[in-house]
Amino acid sequence: MSTPEIYVSTDVEADGPIPGPHSMLSFGSAAYLADKTLLTTFSANLDTLPEAQGHPDTMAWWATQPVAWAACRSDCEAPEAAMHRYVAWLKALPGKPVFVAYPAGYDFLFVYWYLMRFAGESPFSHSALDIKTFAMAMLKKDYRSVTKRSMPRRWFDRLPHTHVALDDAIEQGALFCNMLAENRG
What is the Cα–Cα distance from 21 to 12, expressed in whole angstroms? Predict the structure, then answer.
């Protein structure tokens, strides 16, 4: 029997648009089987990078999200420790991890950069699956015309989008699995 793909829906909260000059504050991952079985989750709040600082626009947005800000700034740990724990978690999954995000271009940029800098490896390799691109293909629409508001309601479970990384990873993972089931149906 072949090794199943494990869809690792991941959400990142950061204090700017790119890693290095800015820090990943928090990330959460929810590991799903294709049938929408949620196997396990991972989350970490990270200490900021010593050489980084928050981007003014991003920090202005965070000022409007006090609950999410408080959530991502509690129980912070060193990025080195978190990324090594994350690699061990990914390697313990019962299949091949596939990074999934909305938008993957943003979330994967941070996760891959942190994995390579602090753990020296990425169990995802160089690959990330973007939910918006998948929706574009399923809906046969232009990329920029596809937004969550334009997607069919049947794809969405009643799960919160709180800007708390793990909450959002679970919500987006369910969305992806619903789309996958319909596409394969």
Answer: 16
Domain-by-domain residue ranges, the chain?
5-184
Residue 130 has a CB neighbour count (10 Å cut-off) of 20
- Asked whether the whole model's pTM tops 0.90, one would answer yes
Q: For residue 174, which of 32, 4, 29 has the smallest C-alpha distance?
A: 32
What is the C-alpha separation between 105 and 108, in angstroms, rounded?
6
Measured CA to CA, the distance from residue 169 to residue 162 in angstroms comes to: 10
Residues 88, 121 contacting (CB under 8 angstroms): no
Three-class DSSP category at 72: helix
| pLDDT, tens digit (0-9, with 9 covering 90-100), for 109-129 | 999 999 999 999 999 999 999
Residue 59 tokens, joined? 């920090």
Residue 43 in 3-state DSSP?
strand
Strands 5-14 and 96-101, sheet pairing? parallel
Secondary-structure class of domain 5-184 per CATH:
alpha beta
Cα–chain center distance at 86: 13
